[in-house]
């Protein structure tokens, strides 16, 4: 759950979100090192006299500043592709839940069971009880088992929607006439809010 003035991500609750957090830290460190190097070079150029102008014509320097960015891009792209494939992989889901976005609510259907469906409406601000969160509380929550692979089928009835649970590392677009799927697995019990 996010809290006011939070600067980082929410705590990871799924293996995918843990991988996303590691990738974020990895990429942020690369960006920090590049920014530090560029700041150092700019400060050197502003504070020292250029006595060896012929070094700027060296072929070795051009080779380095051509190959180094390519290596850096590979160091960012390979972990990113691995996570993308992990997010798209669905192996023998234990449960399938169909999610349909409507103009002001979501409909959920447990497709493995007959006639087990319900609508989930957001609770109006005037009806919230003390301790409940505005724009996040709903009248019917989705209940899912933990440590089991669950497939979510996401679509929409009318307009574009987005089904997201940040602590699970999920965000799937609900598009009318298209069926998107995502997989989730929670590693610990709890109440997870989405948008």
TrEMBL record:
<keyword id="KW-0496">Mitochondrion</keyword>
<keyword id="KW-0460">Magnesium</keyword>
<keyword id="KW-1133">Transmembrane helix</keyword>
<dbReference type="InterPro" id="IPR011759">
    <property type="entry name" value="Cyt_c_oxidase_su2_TM_dom"/>
</dbReference>
<dbReference type="InterPro" id="IPR002429">
    <property type="entry name" value="CcO_II-like_C"/>
</dbReference>
<dbReference type="InterPro" id="IPR036257">
    <property type="entry name" value="Cyt_c_oxidase_su2_TM_sf"/>
</dbReference>
<keyword id="KW-0999">Mitochondrion inner membrane</keyword>
<keyword id="KW-0186">Copper</keyword>
<dbReference type="GO" id="GO:0004129">
    <property type="term" value="F:cytochrome-c oxidase activity"/>
</dbReference>
<comment type="similarity">
    <text>Belongs to the cytochrome c oxidase subunit 2 family.</text>
</comment>
<keyword id="KW-0812">Transmembrane</keyword>
<feature type="transmembrane region" description="Helical">
    <location>
        <begin position="66"/>
        <end position="85"/>
    </location>
</feature>
<dbReference type="InterPro" id="IPR008972">
    <property type="entry name" value="Cupredoxin"/>
</dbReference>
<keyword id="KW-0813">Transport</keyword>
<dbReference type="GO" id="GO:0042773">
    <property type="term" value="P:ATP synthesis coupled electron transport"/>
</dbReference>
<keyword id="KW-0479">Metal-binding</keyword>
<dbReference type="InterPro" id="IPR034210">
    <property type="entry name" value="CcO_II_C"/>
</dbReference>
<dbReference type="GO" id="GO:0005743">
    <property type="term" value="C:mitochondrial inner membrane"/>
</dbReference>
<dbReference type="InterPro" id="IPR045187">
    <property type="entry name" value="CcO_II"/>
</dbReference>
<keyword id="KW-0679">Respiratory chain</keyword>
<dbReference type="Pfam" id="PF00116">
    <property type="entry name" value="COX2"/>
</dbReference>
<comment type="function">
    <text>Component of the cytochrome c oxidase, the last enzyme in the mitochondrial electron transport chain which drives oxidative phosphorylation. The respiratory chain contains 3 multisubunit complexes succinate dehydrogenase (complex II, CII), ubiquinol-cytochrome c oxidoreductase (cytochrome b-c1 complex, complex III, CIII) and cytochrome c oxidase (complex IV, CIV), that cooperate to transfer electrons derived from NADH and succinate to molecular oxygen, creating an electrochemical gradient over the inner membrane that drives transmembrane transport and the ATP synthase.</text>
</comment>
<feature type="transmembrane region" description="Helical">
    <location>
        <begin position="27"/>
        <end position="46"/>
    </location>
</feature>
<dbReference type="Pfam" id="PF02790">
    <property type="entry name" value="COX2_TM"/>
</dbReference>
<feature type="domain" description="Cytochrome oxidase subunit II copper A binding">
    <location>
        <begin position="92"/>
        <end position="195"/>
    </location>
</feature>
<feature type="domain" description="Cytochrome oxidase subunit II transmembrane region profile">
    <location>
        <begin position="1"/>
        <end position="91"/>
    </location>
</feature>
<keyword id="KW-1278">Translocase</keyword>
<dbReference type="GO" id="GO:0005507">
    <property type="term" value="F:copper ion binding"/>
</dbReference>
<keyword id="KW-0472">Membrane</keyword>
<keyword id="KW-0249">Electron transport</keyword>
<protein>
    <recommendedName>
        <fullName>Cytochrome c oxidase subunit 2</fullName>
    </recommendedName>
</protein>
């Amino acid at each position: 759950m996010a809290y006011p003035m939070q600067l980082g991500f929410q705590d990871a609750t799924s293996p995918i979100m843990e991988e996303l957090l590691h990738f974020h830290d990895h990429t942020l460190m690369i960006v920090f090192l590049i920014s530090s190097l560029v700041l150092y070079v700019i400060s050197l150029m502003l504070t020292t006299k250029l006595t060896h102008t012929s070094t700027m014509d060296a072929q070795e320097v051009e080779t380095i500043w051509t190959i180094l960015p390519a290596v850096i891009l590979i160091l960012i792209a390979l972990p990113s592709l691995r996570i993308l494939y992990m997010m798209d992989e669905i192996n023998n889901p234990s449960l399938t839940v169909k999610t349909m976005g409507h103009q002001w609510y979501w409909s959920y259907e447990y497709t493995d069971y007959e006639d087990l469906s319900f609508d989930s409406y957001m609770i109006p601000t005037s009806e919230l009880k003390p301790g409940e969160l505005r724009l996040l509380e709903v009248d019917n929550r989705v209940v899912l088992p933990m440590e089991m692979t669950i497939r979510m089928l996401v679509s929409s009835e009318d307009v574009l929607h987005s089904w997201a649970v940040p602590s699970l590392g999920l965000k799937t677009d609900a598009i009318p006439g298209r069926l998107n799927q995502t997989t989730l697995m929670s590693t610990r019990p709890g109440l997870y809010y989405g948008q």
